[in-house]
TrEMBL record, chain A:
SUPFAM superfamilies: MetI-like. Keywords: Membrane, Transmembrane, Transmembrane helix, Transport. This is ABC transporter permease. The keyword DNA repair does not apply. The chain crosses the membrane at residues 43-64, 104-125, 137-157, 195-213, 234-253, 291-315. Pfam families: BPD_transp_1. It comes from Mesorhizobium prunaredense.
UniProtKB/TrEMBL annotation, chain B:
This is Multiple sugar transport system permease protein. It is a multi-pass membrane protein. The keyword Transmembrane helix applies. Belongs to the binding-protein-dependent transport system permease family. It is found in: Cell membrane. PROSITE patterns: ABC_TM1. Keywords: Cell membrane, Membrane, Sugar transport, Transmembrane, Transmembrane helix, Transport.
C-alpha cells in the first residue's frame, strides 16, 4: 500500500517520522492555505496510553519476578539470595522436563486441530445456505462458554461408568474409555475439550478475513475459467494469510498457557500425566508456596512462549512482505 | 439452478456436522441441570427426564450467594473492557498506521506472559497498597488480558481498512485526531464490536486471577462455581445448573451480538476500497 500522499500543490511527500509539534504546525499552516509541504500524520500519541498501561502492569511484575527467581523464598519463611540455584534446580528437575513435554504435546495438538477445523468452518460459513446465521451462532457458543463451567460438564461426560460419551461409544461398538482418568488418554481427552472450545475463535478470525476479500478478482477469475480449488489456492488463501497467522499466533499462545480446563478437570493428574508447565508452576507457587522456584519456572516458561511466538511473528511479517511483493 | 440447490443442501449438512458437537454438549448440559440425582445416574443415560428438577436452580441461588458473585463479575468485566477499549482502539490504529510491528510485539508480550507470573508480584503490590479487599485488584489484572486482545484485534482490522479516505481528510486539513475520530473510527465500528465481544468473553471467563486474588466477598462467578465443586457433595444436577448460570450471560450476549459480528464483518466497510 502506498503511503505517498499527493498534495494540492502537486508536491509529493513520503511518510516521514515527525514530532507532534511539527505535525500541529503543519496542520495549522495547511488550514490557512499556505503552500507548506505536508508531512504524514503523527500516529504515536494513539499508541502511548496503551504502552504506558501495558508497561506499568508488565514491567513491575517482570522485574519483581526476575528478582524473586534468584532468591530462596518460600512464603512465610525468611528469604535469602540464591543466585542461579533455582535455575540449576530446574534444569535437573525431571518433573519439570516431563511437564515441558506435556506442554508441547498438548500445544501442538491444540493448535493443529482448531486451525484446520476452524478454517474449514469459516469456508463453510462464508458461503450462503439456509439457517446459516443460526448455525453460526450455535457454533460460536463453545468459545463464549466459561472454561470452568465447560470443564465441569465435560468431566461428567467423561465419567467412565455414568458418562454419556462411553454410552455413545457403546452404540457404535467401541469399548468404554477411561478418558481423563487414564494416563495414556488424558492429554488427547483434554485436547478434545480445548479443540471443542477454541475452534470457533479460529473460525471467527478467518471469517473476518474472508469477509474483507473483494469480489471482483473472483469474478474475473471465474471468467478466465479458474476452478474452485484454484480460486481458493491463488486468491482466497493469500488474501486471508494475515488472518490465518493471527489465528495461529493467538492459538499457540493460548494453548501453551492453557490452565483453566486442565486445572478444573485433572489438576495435572492422574499422577502427573497431564501436568503442563503452567500447572506445575501453579502447584509450586500456590500449593508449596515456593515463590523463588516458581518464579524461575515462570521465567523459563515465558522464554519458551516468547521463542515460539517470535518464530510465528517472523512468519507473519514475511507473509505480509511477500504479499506486498505480490502486488 | 438445481445444482445450486444441491450445493446449498450440501453446505447445510456440512455446517450441521461441524456444529453438532456444540449442540450436543449444550443439550446435555441443560439435561444434566434439570435432572434429579437418580436420573443423572441412570444407565443408559436419559436425555429428557419425566420429572424436571427445577429445584437444582433454586438451590444454586439459595445456598451460594450467587447474586453477589454475579454483580462482582459484571463490575470486573465491564470496567476492564471499557478501559481496554478506551486505550486499545487508538493504539491498534496507531500501530497499524505506523506499521510498527515492534510496538505490537510489546503489546503481545503481555498476552504471551502466563497469567500466573503476574499473580505473585501483583498480589504483593495490591497487599502493600491496601486494596486487596476490593474489586480493583481483579479489574487491574484483567486489563492484562483485555488490552492486548483489543489492540491485537484492532491492528488486524485497521490494517485492512482503506487509507484513501484518511489521506483525503488529511489533505483537507484534518488533524490526526480528527482523521481518527471522524474517518477511521466509524469505518472500524464492526472491528470494535468484535474487540469488545472478545474482551468481554476473556474477562468474564477468567478463572486463575480470581482464584488467587478474590476474597469471599469479591469472588467472580467462575471462582464461585469452582468452589462449589470443592465444597459440595459431588451432585451433578446443581453443579450443572450452576455451570449454566455462570455461562448463560455470555451465551445470551453471543446470541444478540452474533448479528452485529456477522453484519459488521460482512457489510464490507472494506470492500472495493
Amino acid at each position: 500500500m502506498s503511503t505517498i500522499a499527493p498534495d494540492r500543490t502537486g508536491v509529493t511527500t513520503g511518510r516521514t517520522e515527525v514530532t507532534t509539534d511539527r505535525t500541529a504546525v503543519t496542520t495549522e499552516q495547511a488550514i490557512e492555505g499556505s503552500q507548506t509541504i505536508r508531512l504524514a500524520p503523527n500516529y504515536w500519541p494513539f499508541v502511548v496510553p496503551a504502552l504506558v498501561v501495558v508497561s506499568a502492569v508488565i514491567v513491575f511484575p517482570w522485574a519483581f519476578t526476575l528478582w524473586m527467581s534468584v532468591n530462596r523464598w518460600t512464603l512465610g519463611q525468611s528469604r535469602s539470595f540464591a543466585g542461579m540455584e533455582n535455575y540449576l534446580r530446574l534444569a535437573s528437575d525431571p518433573r519439570f522436563w516431563e511437564s515441558l513435554v506435556h506442554t508441547l504435546t498438548y500445544t501442538s495438538l491444540s493448535v493443529a486441530a482448531p486451525m484446520f477445523l476452524g478454517t474449514v468452518a469459516a469456508l463453510i460459513f462464508d458461503a450462503r445456505f439456509p439457517l446459516r446465521g443460526l448455525l453460526r451462532g450455535v457454533f460460536v457458543m463453545p468459545m463464549m462458554a466459561t472454561p470452568v463451567a465447560v470443564a465441569l460438564v465435560w468431566t461428567m461426560m467423561f465419567h467412565p461408568q455414568l458418562g454419556v460419551l462411553n454410552y455413545l461409544l457403546s452404540l457404535v461398538g467401541i469399548p468404554a474409555q477411561e478418558w481423563i482418568f487414564n494416563a495414556n488418554t488424558v492429554i488427547p481427552s483434554l485436547v478434545a475439550v480445548e479443540t471443542w472450545q477454541w475452534t470457533p475463535l479460529v473460525m471467527l478470525i478467518v471469517l473476518g478475513g474472508l469477509a474483507s476479500v473483494p469480489r471482483e478478482p473472483f469474478e474475473s477469475a471465474e471468467i478466465d475459467g479458474a476452478n474452485a480449488w484454484q480460486q481458493f489456492r491463488y486468491l482466497t488463501l493469500p488474501m486471508i494469510a494475515p488472518f490465518l497467522m493471527i489465528a495461529l499466533i493467538i492459538r499457540t499462545i493460548d494453548a501453551l498457557k492453557s490452565f483453566d480446563i486442565i486445572y478444573a478437570m485433572t489438576q495435572g493428574g492422574p499422577g502427573t500425566a497431564s501436568e503442563t508447565i503452567n500447572i506445575y508452576l501453579y502447584n509450586t507457587a500456590f500449593s508449596y508456596y515456593d515463590i523463588g522456584y516458581g518464579s524461575a519456572m515462570a521465567v523459563v516458561f515465558f522464554i519458551v512462549i516468547v521463542a515460539l511466538s517470535f518464530i510465528l511473528l517472523m512468519l507473519r511479517q514475511r507473509s505480509q512482505w511477500n504479499d506486498a511483493e505480490g502486488k | 439452478m438445481s445444482s445450486r440447490l444441491l450445493n446449498q443442501i450440501g453446505l447445510f449438512f456440512a455446517a450441521l456436522v461441524i456444529v453438532s458437537p456444540a449442540i450436543l454438549f449444550f443439550l446435555w448440559m441443560i439435561s444434566l441441570s434439570l435432572k434429579f440425582e437418580i436420573d443423572n445416574g441412570a444407565y443408559p443415560p436419559i436425555l429428557i427426564p419425566e420429572r424436571f428438577a427445577w429445584s437444582n436452580y433454586v438451590k444454586v441461588f439459595e445456598e451460594n450467594n450467587f447474586l453477589l458473585y454475579l454483580w462482582n463479575s459484571v463490575l470486573v468485566t465491564g470496567t476492564a473492557t471499557l478501559l481496554a477499549l478506551l486505550i486499545g482502539v487508538p493504539a491498534g490504529y496507531g500501530i497499524a498506521r505506523l506499521k510498527a510491528e515492534r510496538s505490537a510485539v510489546v503489546i503481545m508480550i503481555a498476552r504471551m506472559t502466563p497469567g500466573l507470573s503476574y499473580l505473585i508480584p501483583l498480589f504483593l503490590l495490591f497487599q502493600w497498597i491496601g486494596i486487596l479487599g476490593t474489586l480493583w485488584p481483579q479489574i487491574i489484572i484483567h486489563l492484562v488480558v483485555t488490552v492486548p486482545i483489543v489492540v491485537w484485534v484492532m491492528i488486524g482490522y485497521f490494517e485492512t481498512t482503506p487509507m484513501e479516505l484518511e489521506e483525503a481528510a488529511n489533505i483537507d486539513g484534518a488533524s490526526s485526531w480528527q482523521v481518527f475520530r471522524l474517518v477511521a473510527l466509524p469505518i472500524a465500528k464492526p472491528g470494535i464490536v468484535v474487540a469488545f465481544i472478545l474482551s468481554v468473553i476473556f474477562s468474564w471467563n477468567n478463572f486463575v486471577f480470581g482464584v488467587v486474588l478474590a476474597s469471599r466477598e469479591t469472588r467472580t462467578l467462575p471462582v464461585a462455581v469452582y468452589n462449589m465443586l470443592s465444597y459440595e457433595q459431588v451432585s451433578w444436577g446443581p453443579l450443572a445448573a450452576a455451570a449454566l448460570v455462570v455461562t448463560l450471560p455470555v451465551l445470551v450476549l453471543t446470541m444478540f451480538a452474533q448479528k452485529q459480528i456477522v453484519a459488521g464483518l460482512t457489510a464490507g466497510a472494506v470492500k472495493g476500497g
